[in-house]
Design a protein that fits this description.
By secondary structure, this protein is mainly alpha-helical. It is built from 9 helices and 2 strands, in the order ααααβααααβα. It starts with a helix and ends in a 5-residue tail after the last helix.
């Protein structure tokens, strides 16, 4: 019992500098990622032998682009590093999208790869829906979170004690 109390007190101290904002709307996240997958599909259709790699590269680094991926930019979402609330770099983007990149790679293996890829995407979606903060495995790996662009400023001011 004491251990649990100590753990709660420690986690409250860690999060006291920044209140975790409410998660981005799930529908917006799914729409944004669908738009990103359309970009990947378009890159894949380029008649070059390396077009598969273009799609994989975009999927990996898209969140590290200025303003985020095209889908997130269009929908109005932002990926931030949880520790300091800064935009993600290419490193965090690659870590965050590692499960989806793996699914993209496996999808090119007939039958077994398709099933595993669908399983990975389903697992990531299940985690995102089930987690109160909308954190999926990729977010845990990169220590990131996805927020609506307008909610970033509101929540930081609110956590600093300014309620207006």
């Amino acid at each position: 019992m004491i251990r649990g109390t100590m753990f709660i007190e420690q986690s409250e101290r860690i999060e006291s500098s920044w209140t975790y904002p409410s998660k981005a709307d799930l529908l917006n996240r799914f729409i944004a990622k669908s738009l990103d997958f359309l970009v990947v599909a378009a890159l894949y259709e380029i008649p070059l032998r390396v077009s598969f790699l273009f799609g994989m590269a975009y999927l990996s680094i898209a969140d590290g682009l200025v303003g985020g991926s095209l889908g997130k930019r269009f929908i109005g979402l932002k990926v931030l590093i949880r520790e300091n609330q800064k935009s993600v770099s290419f490193r965090e983007s690659i870590l965050r999208n590692l499960p989806l990149t793996l699914a993209y790679l496996l999808y090119h293996i007939p039958f077994v790869g398709w099933i595993i890829a669908i399983g990975i995407i389903g697992f990531e979606s299940f985690l995102m829906i089930g987690n109160p903060k909308g954190i999926r495995l990729g977010d845990e790996l990169a220590k990131t979170c996805v927020l609506d662009q307008q909610s970033k400023g509101e929540n930081i001011h609110h956590s600093a004690g300014n309620t207006t």
